[in-house]
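Protocol step 4 of 6.
Sequence for Aspartyl/glutamyl-tRNA(Asn/Gln) amidotransferase subunit C (Marinomonas arenicola) entered exactly as in the expression construct, tag removed. Do not edit the line below.
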Amino acid sequence: MSIDKQDVQKIAHLARLALTEEDAVQYQHSLSSVLSLVEQMQSVDTDGVAPLSNPLEMTQRLREDEVTEGNQRDAFLANAPQTEAGLFLVPQVIE
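Step 5 output, structure tokens:
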């Protein structure tokens, strides 16, 4: 798929970008090459190929989920101008 200079200028206008004529020609070539790569990738037969999240058969080493800090809610609420039932009270913004 090829894109012409008028399409590039239209896209630039919609994106509110100012392009010179030289920039438009450069972007025309770049966008055309990207679109041709996408067409090439879409033409590949992928039937029967399972999707991979990672090409390597490895497992992620995870640390144990341990609490490292105690509950400090009362200390944090002490600085709040208004609280109720352990929650911050804030002014209503949306009616």
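Step 6, annotate. The two ends are 51 Å apart (CA to CA).
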